[in-house]
Amino acid sequence: MKFAIFTHLPWPEDASQGEVIQRTTDQVQQAEALGFEGAWLAEHHFTRYSIGASPLVLATYLAARTSRIRLGTAVLVSPLHHPVRLAEDTATLDLVSDGRLDVGIGRGTFGYEYGGYHVDPAESQERLQESIKIIQGLWTTPDFCYQGRHFQVARANLVPTPVQQPHPPIYIAATRTPETLEFAVSTGHTLCVAVVQDTADALELCHRFVRMSREAGFNVPISRIPFFRYVYVAETEEQARRDTQARLNWVVDIMQWRRFIKEGSEVYQRMDDWRQRRTELPVSYDYLLEHRAIVGTPDHCARRIKELQAQGIDYFGCNFDFGGMPPQKVARSMDLFAQEVMPCFN
Hints:
The chain has helices at about 15-35, 55-65, 85-95, 110-115, 125-140, 180-185, 200-215, 235-260, 270-275, 285-290, 300-310, 325-340, and strands at about 1-5, 40, 70-75, 100-105, 145, 150-155, 170-175, 190, 225-235, 295, 315-320. By secondary structure, the protein is of the alpha/beta class. It has a single domain (about 1-345), classed as Luciferase-like domain (TIM Barrel), CATH 3.20.20. Helix 2 packs parallel to helix 3 (about 85-95) and helix 6 packs across helix 7. The mean pLDDT is about 95.
């Protein structure tokens, strides 16, 4: 089994933006030293939920500070960007990282993130599909041409070109709509699974994807799908709960809060004020432990991951840094995972 780390780059009120970047850099370098396969970065805009507005810029910075670990995007929100620019930036990153790039692409979240770019969410599916076709086409085809509803390309030759041949791996997030899943299947690309979906639903999606891929003639196996969960390892169950409850609650609170904001964002507001005036609660901490997170002792975490392995999952991604977890606790959790969980899968 291969293991990776993932981060949303959360920015809670008690941390500076510089601290978030430094923590992420430290975690990626630690992950490389511990033998993790990859490090994946999210893209979000205008929010404390994530300061990952430019994941390719940050991944390039991380490429210069690492030598082996693969760097992934989970995911680039391609409908918000011109695909020619994305093709150039991803090819450049693949070049400077010596072929260590994994490209996850999706539609992201709507609301004020799309509003800030003045992009109609109703166009997101068409823009997603056109952008993936253009990016892959530019990576691989001299004098590439494309005529779409939203984007047109006339005899473009990409410079630089990617190191990986025929091109960097493409992963597509498809948690919301059948159209995205059908597109991923029909183009032979691989699914990727985010932390925000319940594990049972995520596994059902993986198995459905595998069946559809086999019927389409591509036969992409479930073992190729990056499967991400919130993860925290501690010496005792009590310590694990004590360390994670407030942090996981921050994650679901800000996810709920963001859904109620149509313009602007929550950046210059206080979460405690929102908590006092909201009229409904998000899912509970215990629900998260059961359905989206793997939190506990090394033995407990290994057992939960083996349950996923029995379902065919062979690429497991750990979101260790959630809700502003103190960096020393993230580092200790990563160490325990590498020392006592990963060896169970050798």
